[in-house]
Amino acid sequence: MSPLIESFVRHFGEMGSRWGINRTVGQMYAYIVLSEEPVNADELAAALSVSRSNVSMGLKELQSWNLVRLQHIAGDRKDYFTAPEDVWEIARTLINERRKREIDPTLTVMRELLMDKPADSGERYAQSRIEDMYKLIEMMTHWSDEIQRLSPKQLARMLKLGAGVSKLLS
User: Fold this and answer.
1) φ, ψ for residue 85, nearest 5 deg
2) Is 108 a domain residue?
3) Do 61 and 14 share a structural domain?
4) How far apart, in whole angstroms, are the C-alpha atoms of residue 147 and residue 155?
């Protein structure tokens, strides 16, 4: 592994642990993303100096997040993995998967809590706060849905607006 790739892979692993994924899984994903050719589990284990079983579990996790694609190479019985070439596709996948795992269950719990009859003024107050949070998360979810419909080119233009939008709104 070149020093540039190694540095990125190591950093991505450290950041992965802050994002709620295993350090090794973060390193594996970074390595796959930076690889020009599809990578198999043995290559990952050797490159990252981790056990083959750790790599297998990590690949299953990356597959469950829809972040890697399984590929077969003619004449080779090993499974190979690639990441999408388009970073926008990776971002969309991460947004969708985090939504399914984190936001949707939270909205479900909030809806259920809002349907309960409050027992006292404390619960009424709590429900009003839950409702405010629910509305905000719903609004952000709808916004995210709209953003996801844009092309990468449109998204890039929108993101470049940045400070210009805040000036227009003030």
Assistant:
1) -70, -35
2) yes
3) yes
4) 7
Compute the distance between CA of residue 37 and CA of residue 52 in angstroms, rounded to an integer: 20
Record the pTM: 0.81
**Residue 82 near residue 45, CB atoms below 8 Å:** no
What is the distance between the alpha carbons of residues 90 and 60, in angstroms, rounded to a whole number?
17
Q: CA-to-CA distance for 52 and 130, rounded, in angstroms? A: 45
Number of domains in the chain: 2
Within 20-115, where are the H helices?
A: 23-34, 41-48, 52-64, 87-98, 104-115
Residues 140 and 115 in one domain: yes
Tokens 């996801």, residue?
148
Q: Tens digits of per-residue pLDDT, 110-151? A: 999 999 999 999 999 999 999 999 999 999 999 999 988 999
- CA gap 20, 130 in Å, rounded: 25
Same domain, 72 and 28: yes
Degrees, nearest 5: CA angle 136-142-145: 140
* pLDDT for residue 166 is more than 80: no
Helix (H, G, I), strand (E, B) or coil at 151: coil
Scan for tokens 């009424």, then name that residue.
124
Task: Read off φ and ψ for residue 101, nearest 5 degrees.
Answer: -90, -25
